[in-house]
Amino acid sequence: MAGTVATGYISTEEIVPDERVVDMDPKIRVLKPDDTQFTTMTDKVSSRAATREKVNWLEEEDFPRIVTNTAAQITTDTAIPFSAGHGKLVQPNDVLRNMRSGEACTVVSVATDTITLARGVGRVVAAAISASDNWLVVADAQPQGSDFPVARYLARVLGYNYTQITRTPWTFTNTQTAIELYGGREPAKEAVRQARVHKKKWEAIGFWGTRSYVASSVAPNGNTEPQGMAGGLYEFLQSNKLDCAGAAMTPSGFDNLMAAVFQYGSTNKVLFAAPVVVQCMSSWNRSGMGAQWDPTPRNVYGVNVDAFISGAYGYRIPVVVKKEFGEFPVANKGFGSYAFLVDLDYIERRPLRDRDTKLLTEQQPKGRDSYAAEYICEATWEIAHERAHAWILGAIAP
Questions:
Q1: Do the Cβ atoms of 335 and 325 come closer than 8 Å?
Q2: pLDDT at residue 106 in the model
């Protein structure tokens, strides 16, 4: 077939379009790069294979040392009613000291939750007792030749979580895998993107996963086999909570939270925070404990840490900005207003034995002129002693 005749200057428009080589940058620009710091850190700190679809762990703490009376009493009262269950926390010959008045007493007898005391022992004389006074159980003071004391036992607590199966598939016709493409051929190019997607799933489970197990599920494809879901931090944390209630997070509020949470667990804690929470922190300008903000990046457990802040007791807390939280709404305590303080010594990733993340290729049906592959993983998280962690929500920009 004869070509079109052109005269004069020949511009780019006279050339057959397919004859022109496209100036294509081989590098593909990713809008949302890998932002899975929590998964990366927990992989570096601790990871153990699970051997069942349910993982269990035991949590224990020392015997309680604080008891509380229920009603006001005068200086001559000796039979003092305490809060329900507190009668089990003391025994005869224990020494109690009122944390408000400083009065020390010894326990004479215990009848359920009514404790009979010998009042005003030691330097501080007997004083009126207010409702809900807190008493420290100092220690027992056994007389010489005493009988064997009453043994007391604090039961351990069972923690548990379920494994969750995630599958991230992709498929192409074999014709598509054979042709030449900018940035590389398929399916290798898509495998890189899907690996990032798959890892982000486990990052999301670590923060927002729900703990559940359905023995007989009702799946869309008619599969009625069991379905497990792994709970994340949102599911477990309850005690140490700072609700900013739609206001900017304050230094004192943050310090009070740190003072509570650093009472428990280790000092190996990391703050994973939404951008708005870090924005609040970076606006603080004051001196004293808890004020020092160090924006110099470092590397902790293979993750770039955006800043450090000094918390209660002077411990330096790495701050990791979770940019993906910035995609979530902030208003009405949306997930974009959240931060999690995580004690890495009390978190452990538990992939099921031989079921950690795998790339499975050639998954297409036999005889189908196509290619299919997937990333598959079955795992869960151990999140022990929720009081060793903390969470912040409801923060807005200052």
A1: yes
A2: 97
Q: With CA atoms as reference, report the closest residue to 209 among 380, 392, 32, 386.
A: 380
Residue 22, CA distances (Å) to 15, 18, 83, 307, 398 in order: 13, 9, 79, 43, 48
pLDDT at 82: 98
- Which tokens sit at 125? 């004389």
DSSP 28-87: PPPSS----HHHHHHHHH-B--BSSSEEEEEE--PPP-EEEB-S-B-TT--EEEB-TTGG
In which element (H, E) is residue 105 found? strand 104-111
Identify whether the C-beta of residue 208 lies closer than 8 Å to the C-beta of residue 272. Answer: no
Residue 330 placed within a domain:
yes
Same domain for 250 and 333? yes
349 strand-pairing partners: 47, 381
Predicted confidence (pLDDT) at residue 383 exceeds the cutoff of 90: yes
The Cα 66–Cα 86 span in angstroms is 9
Q: pLDDT (tens digit, 9 = 90+) per residue, 311-332?
A: 666 678 888 999 999 999 999 9
The DSSP secondary-structure symbol of 299 reads E
Residues 121 and 269 grouped into a single domain: no
pLDDT of residue 217: 67
The three state secondary structure string of 238-254 is CCCEEEEEEECCCHHHH
CATH assignment of the domain containing 111: 2.40.33.10
CB burial string 78-112: b at 16+ within 10 A, e below:
eebbbeeebbebbbbbbbbbbeebebbbbbeebee
Q: Is 177 in the same domain as 294? A: no
Pair (99, 211) in one structural domain = no
**Residue 82 structural domain:** 66-140
Mean pLDDT of the chain: 89
pLDDT level of residue 289 (50, 70, 90 thresholds): very low
CB atoms within 10 A of CB 186: 17
Which tens digits make up the pLDDT trace of 3-24? 777 777 777 777 777 777 777 7
Give percent of the chain with pLDDT exceeding 70.
93
Distance between CA 290 and CA 308 in Å, rounded?
11
> Do 112 and 195 reside in the same domain of the chain?
no
- The pTM assigned to this predicted structure is 0.84
Q: Are 162 and 350 in contact (CB under 8 A)?
A: no
For residue 162, give Cα distances in angstroms to 57, 167, 215, 273, 383: 12, 17, 12, 26, 12
